[in-house]
Write a structure and sequence with these properties.
It is a single chain. This protein is α+β, with helices and mostly antiparallel strands and 112 residues long. The protein is built from 2 helices and 6 strands. Strands 1-2-3-4-5-6 form a 6-stranded antiparallel beta barrel.
Amino acid sequence: MDELVERLSVEGQTVVVGGPSPSAAELQRRISEMGYVFVKFPTTRGGTDLGVRVDETATDLGDVDFANGTGSVHIEGTLTLNTVKVRCVADIDLPSLSGTGHLVVLEEAGAR
């Protein structure tokens, strides 16, 4: 398995909202309008900023108030990292734009 994917597959990793302008408003826009968010794993060398296609059925916004910047959001979505198909699972606290997350390997390169 790819070394980076393996490292990011350990549960409980620190994650933050990534992308060019991380904010609660931008996170809301990306989830609701674009269906694509950035989740950053800052503890890797230089940080690893991943673009994640949001899975609307697995993402939970029930506890979040974007207008007041409170609550937490559970985000799940898929991407390919270093030729490995993975699911990103992250719980983000809106006031701090940080939380915990990990990757789940869906399909390794060459697997059928």
